Amino acid sequence: MDRIGDFSIKDDGSQNIAQCIGGEDPTILTSNFFLDHVGEVFLTLQPDGLSWKLIESLCNDQEERSTCLGIQLLSKRDTSINISDVYDVEFIDWGLVHETRLTNPGFLLGHASEMYRFTVHGVERSKSQPSLLAPTVFTFGHVDKQTCQMWVNRMNSYLSLETDRPKNLLVYINPGSGKGNGCRTWKNVAPIFSQAKVKTKVIVTERAGQALDAMTSITNQELNLYDGIVAIGGDGFFNEILNGILLSRHKAPYPPSPPDDDPTIETKADVLLHDPSVTIVDPTVSNDDESPLLKRSSLNESQPINLNQDSEMSFPNERFRFGLIPSGSTDAIVICTTGVRDPMTSALQIILGKRVCLDIAQVVRWEKYHTSKNQPHVRYAASFAGYGFYGDVITESEKYRWMGPKRYDYAGTKVFLRHKSYEAKVAYMKAGPEKTNVGASAKRIKAFWGLSKESERLACRAKCDICNSTSLGPQIEKPDPKQESNWVSVKGRFLSIGAAVISCRNEKAPDGLVADAHLSDGFLHLVLIKECPRAFYLWHLTQLARKGGTPLNFDFVEHHKTTTFTFTSSGEESVWNVDGEILKAQKLSAQVFRGLISLFASGPET
Ligand SMILES: Nc1ncnc2c1ncn2[C@@H]1O[C@H](COP(=O)(O)OP(=O)(O)OP(=O)(O)O)[C@@H](O)[C@H]1O
User: Fold this and answer.
1) What are the pLDDT digits (tens) for 213-267?
2) What's in the GO CC field (predicted)?
3) What gap in Å lies between CA 119 and CA 596, rounded to an integer?
């Protein structure tokens, strides 16, 4: 171990070693440092990032090669890091910095020296899977303490310009989600939040419905103390939190219905604003056969319902974001919004303050049973609402929750073998193409609307043209719901009816239920599977399970982009699956709100 007395300082040799290049740009710092486990580097700091060049090449052609004698020395891509990928910079005082030297016969020698050091914590992207992120740390050393401190201060001043990052988060953990890993998942990612100096208030739930109750009763004033809420669990748990937040805070008319439909719906839809005191828990409805979420949330009816008149919190909301760290059985929302099912990637996207808008569907149950006339009962869905096969699978799978994620395979097989179809009527509003397209995105947008013959798949991705296009979308030019000609009605027997808000990619359906559904295109993708022989339905399901499959390419399958639809069952029993939670509904309507919430995520990288 050496104390470095002969540390070579090659820029200005003065006390303050860092310098501005040519004195021209005061925002740029350069100096020589020792990079731990690498060697001496020439380091440059600019407002958007840090970059370095190895001074003493470990191999003669180091610039060209990233390995020497088969050993990874210095990856070419590790020669810079963007400030947007850095989440902490820290002065760590005097200590060892290791250098890797190549000796003459070609051996690598570890050589450690003591000096002052600072660390840069950031993220690196997987080469093979660009959506996958991992934490990385670089340690730089210098004999001069002031130099180290000045670089740390300068980097921290650049980091402080990253204003979209959270500082204070509310974290809810479902300990029982998926294989019961909720708490372990948090334990693995919590150090990243501490390192990034993000404060967290962590609550581990003790029962289903607890997070919904808490979010319903929390005051806006308290909620506004946080930059967002993070769920550690699956899609069902996220749905619970989403509903807890939105039910009392999202004010919107109920979905419209066709002019010839039940006048009670039409009148209510026209006149009523969504009233939280009526719709959070419907006291006229017995919860004997309801989803665990609703059943357990009603246990707390004695708890005062917050009418949230204390301070403003409305949606869409510029500031408040939702986060989701996957620990569930399906995790479709995380896969669609981050591109991978990886808790660390989600955690890193949260602390880096990534942002993506998400469409949310408002599902309103008008009648639970054929004979009942209930109060409208509202539920929000972030991924999917499905009936028939989907409702039956979720009902069946609840009986086998103890099996963990495998319950879906078991329940799915049982329901498939039953091959039940249901008589129902669906009316959906037509959503026609716009006349004008936008610049470079025109081709994608044309194909999106089905105006192009190219069968290009338009999967949603990070910085998606379609989601970011303001001139596209039904929320801008809405067809008049009062005109009957704007509605299409389909009556018949269905194996399933599904409304996908997002593509719903998951490990069982790698392209999702609807491959080209987007995170915030402003559409519900209605998929009607009409009664057909079991072998045909199996064919459809196998296409769903295949990457690049064409599950919508069958005569018995209809796919419609819409903003709103209504559903009436002719049967006795009618079960919907809303984001993986049971909702019994004989009659319901649904509409989508474009980009209603923002998520701490960046969309899938392709
Ligand atoms: N402490 C708890 N005990 C029991 N159930 C809980 C608890 N906390 C939340 N829940 C409920 O557990 C249900 C399922 O949770 P979650 O979505 O996290 O897991 P999953 O069903 O395994 O995953 P996925 O939704 O991705 O299929 C939700 O309805 C949620 O309300």
Assistant:
1) 999 999 999 999 999 999 999 999 999 999 999 999 998 999 998 887 754 544 4
2) membrane
3) 39
Closest listed residue to residue 101, CA positions, set 153, 58, 159, 52: 58
**Nearest atom in ligand 1 to 240's CA:** 31
Q: Tell me, in angstroms, the distance from the centre of ligand 1 to residue 242's CA.
A: 13
Q: Is 510 in the pocket of ligand 1 (CB under 6 A)?
A: no
Total number of residues shown for the chain: 606
Which DSSP symbol is given to 22?
A: G
Q: 502 with 273: CB under 8 angstroms?
A: no
Residue of the nearest CA to atom 10 in ligand 1? 208
Ligand 1 within 6 A of CB of 175: yes
Q: Decide: 506 in ligand 1 pocket, CB within 6 A.
A: no
Taking the CA of residue 238 as reference, the ligand 1 atom at the shortest distance is 17
Q: Is 386 in the pocket of ligand 1 (CB under 6 A)?
A: no
| CB of 213 closer than 6 angstroms to any ligand 1 atom | no
Protein residue whose Cα sits closest to atom 16 of ligand 1: 234
Going along the chain from its start, the domains and CATH numbers come out as 2-159 (2.30.29.30), 183-433+441-599 (2.60.200.40)
DSSP β-ladder status, 228-233 and 168-173: parallel
Nearest ligand 1 atom, CA 236: 17
Reported as a single tens digit per residue, the pLDDT across 265-302 is 444 444 344 444 344 333 334 444 455 444 444 434 34
For the stretch 61-76, pLDDT in tens is 444 444 444 444 444 4
Secondary structure of residue 323 in the 3-state scheme: strand
Residues with active-site annotation: 235
Residue 316: cis peptide before it, omega within 30 degrees of 0: yes
Q: Is 440 left (phi over 0), alpha (psi -120 to 50) or beta?
A: alpha
Output the six-digit token pair for 154: 């300068």
- Helix (H) / strand (E) containing 195: helix 182-195
Q: CB 156: neighbour CB atoms within 10 A?
A: 14
